[in-house]
Specification:
This protein is mostly helical. The protein is built from 18 helices and three strands.
């Protein structure tokens, strides 16, 4: 039986004819006879492969009309194939180049992002930028300067270090939750010592950077924030649901750090920015806590939906802070940070946030788990959009002195 094939290699067309037949194992003489030299314009090769006494023999005849030479190939059974001398030389593994395992680099980058909680750091940097920008406007200095980059770099490093230390402390509880089980420390891809050293190193580097390029107040507040988050909030989560309230303090420090980096002191406008972030967190975290309440219960973390599974306390807390969000968001205007143009969009954003929080209250009468989760997920999405939109509005409507 035969078939014709053709292909093109480096601009040369090569035709193949394939025969398959069953034969007895070839002798050495027969193997040598399988070779025949064609004319100068063609190369004919016959390759035989025999696995056992009754194995099929495949012969490939290749005609390449652009070749001007022929090669002699000695046919042997597959178990006795001759290896060219240059390939048979031992490999020097000490100097050989090994290609990385496919996906290894992407996995490492993903693990580092998870270890340092890059998404959380990004939120801190956005609000820190807002605080620095507004503080610079109050000082009458440029809002885009080298000091901004220095402040954000230091704040980001401290925040990343705190996140890594938090994961080091929570690696066992993270391993019990589906949402966090794939984190590098929880899954065991990174040893504990790597997480601790990475966290301490980033924390130290960020603190030194802030000390060199900002002021002592900013460094002190950054270290206090990291300490509260790692040493107070993290272990408290397994003790009481009030941990969410305690954790909201370090969670709201981003704009305060940006302000002090620009101004060098704590002032009422900075407190107003802190208050905005503090209040914003509660509807945001209540939606997360409801979405992953089974995970938190499995890990022994006493979030409000775990302690009070009927949902009433979760809804009431989210609604209280969503209502409070509207007047708190107007505090910068009352303190002279912005002009009157800020009021309308700030109120509109606050009403949207409140509307989705009211919708979230529908978890109390949801007919299915899917409906309940949908309402919580919608509030989570809106909360993530609300904060950067509000700070963008603040910065656009800021009043310079």
């Amino acid at each position: 039986m035969s078939a014709n094939y053709s292909t093109r290699e480096n601009g040369v067309k090569i035709n193949f004819r394939l025969w398959v037949c069953a034969v007895a194992p070839p002798s050495s003489a027969l193997q040598r006879d399988q070779l025949r030299m064609g004319p100068a314009d063609s190369l004919t090769c016959r390759l035989a492969s025999v696995a056992n006494s009754a194995a099929p023999l495949a012969i490939i005849e290749s005609e390449a009309r652009s070749f001007r030479s022929a090669a002699q190939i000695l046919m042997t059974p597959t178990t006795q194939v001759a290896v060219p001398a240059q390939l048979a030389e031992p490999i020097d593994h000490a100097h050989s180049i090994h290609a990385p395992i496919p996906g290894a680099t992407a996995r490492l980058i993903h693990d580092l992002r998870e270890l340092f909680k890059v998404k959380v750091v990004g939120l801190v940097l956005v609000t820190g930028w807002g605080g620095f920008y507004l503080g610079s406007m109050q000082s009458g200095i440029s809002t885009f300067q080298r000091g901004l980059l220095d402040a954000l770099l230091g704040i980001g490093l401290v925040s990343a270090g705190a996140g890594a230390l938090n994961e080091a402390l929570e690696r066992k509880t993270d391993a019990k939750m589906k949402r966090t089980a794939d984190r590098p420390l929880a899954s065991g891809r990174f040893p504990l010592v790597v997480g601790i050293l990475a966290g301490l190193g980033s924390l130290a580097l960020g603190s030194i950077w802030l000390a060199l390029h900002t002021n002592l107040l900013t460094v002190s507040l950054a270290l206090l924030t990291a300490f509260t988050y790692v040493a107070v909030y993290t272990p408290l989560k397994r003790v009481t649901s009030l941990a969410t309230f305690v954790g909201a303090f370090p969670g709201a420090m981003g704009p305060m750090l940006g302000w002090t980096a620009a101004r060098g002191r704590i002032e009422w406008p900075a407190v107003a920015l802190f208050a905005i972030l503090f209040v914003w967190q509660f509807p945001h975290f209540m939606s997360i806590a409801w979405l992953y309440r089974d995970d938190y219960a499995r890990a022994g973390i006493r979030m409000l939906p775990v302690v009070h599974p009927d949902g009433w306390s979760t809804v009431m807390e989210a609604l209280f802070y969503a209502v409070l969000m509207i007047p708190v968001s107007l505090a910068p205007w009352k303190l002279g940070l912005t002009g009157p143009a800020y009021v309308a969009p700030a109120v509109a954003l606050g009403l949207i946030y409140l509307a989705y929080t009211i919708r979230f209250a529908g978890i109390l009468r949801a007919k299915s788990e899917d409906e309940s989760r949908m309402r919580a997920r919608d509030l989570l999405k809106v909360s993530v959009l609300y904060l950067p939109l509000l700070f963008t509005t603040l910065m656009l409507c800021a009043r310079a002195k």
